[in-house]
Amino acid sequence: MDNTANNLKKSYASYLRLECGLSDNSIAGYCDDLDKLIKFIGEENLTAEKLEHADILQFLCTLRDIGIQPRSQARILSGIKSFYRYLTVEEYIKSDPTKNIDTPKIGRHLPEVLTLEEVDRLVGSFDLSLPEGRRNKAIIEVMYSCGLRVSELVNLKISDIYPKEEFIVIKGKGDKQRIVPISQSALKEISLYMHDRKQLNIKKGDEDTLFLNRRGGRLSRVMIFYIVKEQCAACNINKTISPHTLRHTFATHLLEGGANLRAIQQMLGHESITTTEIYVHLDKEYLRQEILLHHPRNIKH
């Protein structure tokens, strides 16, 4: 935890005790929830004062990804909102990034997943006449093809891509490397995007970074959020969508296609198989078809 975050946490705890009159147990609970956010901030190289709306949404996606239940998510979000209200009142920040973020629905355990038809519609909806059209299409294709975290996508290097072998090397959480297969479709979109990338005035230090903004610098995580969100809205996909949705969709489609859970675990970079087991949530129609096709009582001899 950096000193700034630590000092803000101490100030917030004092506020809860002196201004709100909360008990030590209640303060400990609020601070415990805040620790989860601070850990996320550290892993993503962010700062508490500069967090944006999209960062909070990504934090909630991370909570879901590690298997925290909606009731606990709602409690954690309540604590985080309280913290940012405090920062706003005390004028540490000008705007509250938690504003207008809905509390997770209790009883809903699973994130949204796109259908294959929706993925195809999304990928095919970009206006390739726009300067960023080819880049954004490649971003979506790579995220769906490889199941990357947003931080892994924005840090993906050209030298990490092995087109002939059809895999990429990803540096995940804790600087742990893993090898992930990449589809021909994604490689094709990267190749087409590289023609546009060559026209950019690339900033020093980002020469090897794959996805760049118009100024030749590395894309931010927030920018990826808006690209996904706005494009889904443009092609009428009426679901609660974030970049993490493509990661969930990647894993779900692999599982539904018969992939081994251990293989999915390795490709996602999960340390524990229990984290990957969140994807064992095949929809009712898929389960119904599986029973009709494979259960002895339904097989016609």
UniProtKB/TrEMBL annotation:
**Entry's Gene Ontology molecular function annotations:** DNA binding; tyrosine-based site-specific recombinase activity
The UniProt record lists the Tyr recombinase domain at 109-292
Q: Which PROSITE patterns match?
A: CB (PS51900), TYR_RECOMBINASE (PS51898)
Task: Enumerate the active-site residues.
Answer: 149, 173, 244, 247, 270, 279 (o-(3'-phospho-dna)-tyrosine intermediate)
Q: Which GO terms describe its cellular component?
A: cytoplasm
Report the locations given in the UniProt record. Cytoplasm
Which family does the entry's similarity section mention? Answer: Belongs to the 'phage' integrase family. XerC subfamily. Belongs to the 'phage' integrase family. XerD subfamily.
The subunit field of the Swiss-Prot or TrEMBL record says:
Forms a cyclic heterotetrameric complex composed of two molecules of XerC and two molecules of XerD.
| Reported function | Site-specific tyrosine recombinase, which acts by catalyzing the cutting and rejoining of the recombining DNA molecules. The XerC-XerD complex is essential to convert dimers of the bacterial chromosome into monomers to permit their segregation at cell division. It also contributes to the segregational stability of plasmids.
Instruction: Supply the name of the protein.
Output: Tyrosine recombinase XerC
